[in-house]
């Protein structure tokens, strides 16, 4: 890997990692398209770390810039997500082996969820990157799981693999999450960026992986739970997991 792009949607999800980069003193910040791209090294790995902001368009634009301006050959997206599957709970870490846009529907011209003219709805993450993230997440939980339970009151985190779905809507009602379960029963978590990054990377032949921490149950309690989890936990999870991934 010559250079890795690391993305998240919200500043809390990258703050600890960026602090670690700045401590090394070898960071160049490039402003482009209303975003700051932080170019440097973490644990000896050349990285470009940037805030994509929220939503599919923002994520696609950022991923394209990482590929074409900063010449990354792989992208990892980290952050939080809402739990969809009934067995998923707050604090679990989800490695997205498959990504899909749940709000993409160009039917009857194309099947629901299928990206027009690409002939596919599901995008597979890079297996080697996903395996490395899975191992890093397991190591993080093994070392810090009890501390996370005591400090933040979350159940001991589990590391799961499966489908993550994306859409330009914050899911925050029981009816909405049950509709997603009915339509896509193998979906584990829902967020707003991962599947479009998967599409952009697929179209340009760039490897990608997505890791998400479940911050809420995507129901009517989601806004408050999301805000609390984001402020208290998101940076700890992201930096702890990514640093193990990069070593």
UniProtKB/TrEMBL annotation:
GO terms for molecular function: adenosylhomocysteine nucleosidase activity; methylthioadenosine nucleosidase activity. The keyword Amino-acid biosynthesis applies. Residues 3-225 form the Nucleoside phosphorylase domain. Transmembrane segments: none annotated. CDD domains: MTAN. GO terms for biological process: L-methionine salvage from methylthioadenosine; L-methionine salvage from S-adenosylmethionine; nucleoside catabolic process. It holds the Pfam family PNP_UDP_1. Pathway: Amino-acid biosynthesis; L-methionine biosynthesis via salvage pathway; S-methyl-5-thio-alpha-D-ribose 1-phosphate from S-methyl-5'-thioadenosine (hydrolase route): step 1/2. It is an enzyme of class 3 (hydrolase). Keywords: Amino-acid biosynthesis, Glycosidase, Hydrolase, Methionine biosynthesis. GO terms for cellular component: cytosol. Its EC number is 3.2.2.9. InterPro entries: MTA_SAH_Nsdase (IPR010049), Nucleoside_phosphorylase_d (IPR000845), Nucleoside_phosphorylase_sf (IPR035994). This is adenosylhomocysteine nucleosidase. It comes from Candidatus Burkholderia verschuerenii.
């Amino acid at each position: 890997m010559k250079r890795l792009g690391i993305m998240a949607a919200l500043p809390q999800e990258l703050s600890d990692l960026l602090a670690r980069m700045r401590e090394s003193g070898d960071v160049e910040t490039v402003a482009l398209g209303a975003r700051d791209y932080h170019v440097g090294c973490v644990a000896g790995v050349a990285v470009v770390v940037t805030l994509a902001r929220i939503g599919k368009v923002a994520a696609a634009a950022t991923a394209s810039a990482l590929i074409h301006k900063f010449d990354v050959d792989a992208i990892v997206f980290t952050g939080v997500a809402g739990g969809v599957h009934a067995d998923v709970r707050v604090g679990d870490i989800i490695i997205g082996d498959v990504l899909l846009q749940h709000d993409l529907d160009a039917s009857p011209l194309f099947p629901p969820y299928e990206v027009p003219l690409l002939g596919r709805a599901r995008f597979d993450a890079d297996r080697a990157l996903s395996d490395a993230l899975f191992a890093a997440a397991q190591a993080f939980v093994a070392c810090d799981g009890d501390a996370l339970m005591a400090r933040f009151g979350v159940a001991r985190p589990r590391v799961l693999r499966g489908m993550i779905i994306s859409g330009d809507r914050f899911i925050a009602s029981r009816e909405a999450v049950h509709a997603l379960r009915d339509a896509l029963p193998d979906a584990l978590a829902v967020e707003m960026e991962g599947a479009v990054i998967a599409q952009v990377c697929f179209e340009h032949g760039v490897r990608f992986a997505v890791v998400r921490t479940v911050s809420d149950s995507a129901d009517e309690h989601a806004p408050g739970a999301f805000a609390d989890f984001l402020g208290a936990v998101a940076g700890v999870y992201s930096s702890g997991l990514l640093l193990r991934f990069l070593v």
